[in-house]
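Data availability (excerpt). All sequences and predicted token strings are deposited with the supplementary files. A representative entry, TfoX C-terminal domain-containing protein, is shown inline so that the format can be inspected without opening the archive.
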Amino acid sequence: MGDLTTLNNIGKALEKQLNRVGITTVEQLKSVGAKEAWLKIKEHDTTACINRLLELEGALQGVKKDKLSADTKTELRAFSEKIKEQRKQQRKKQRENNNNNKKKIKNEEKEEEKEEEEEKDKEVEKEENATTIEKDDTKEDSKITTTNEKDDNNNEKKRKTTEQSVEKEESSSETQVIQQQKIIKK
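Structure token line:
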């Protein structure tokens, strides 16, 4: 290990934490200060509490943490509480942002669902229109078929009537011929 363990209050565990955040020498610790070093450690280890901060300040002052002055302890406790409150506010804001994002996502999902429903309704309407057109076409075809059938029926009647007329005429002509032959024979 390094020379950090030569300081009061710094054991192997605290030295590892300091090394993890880039503080590997006594000079670096003095340059950064106890508060900043504690904040860096807290970023990696959220359980780092006020005692860790007191240990770091004691190491810099060359005394055990319980030998720090009452004013220093009060100042460090106030700093610790301020940081706790800031982090609490950050978490609250993050939760609010998450909730807002969730609401935004829900609203977007609802909008997408609405658009999908509108598209489905348009498809159904198109199908209904197509069915109506088919029905209209079918009705028109039926009308045409009915008209054609009527025309066919009328044509058949005319043909029959014509045939009957022709037959009558033929019959009538035959009858006349027979009558004329009878007259001639007499």
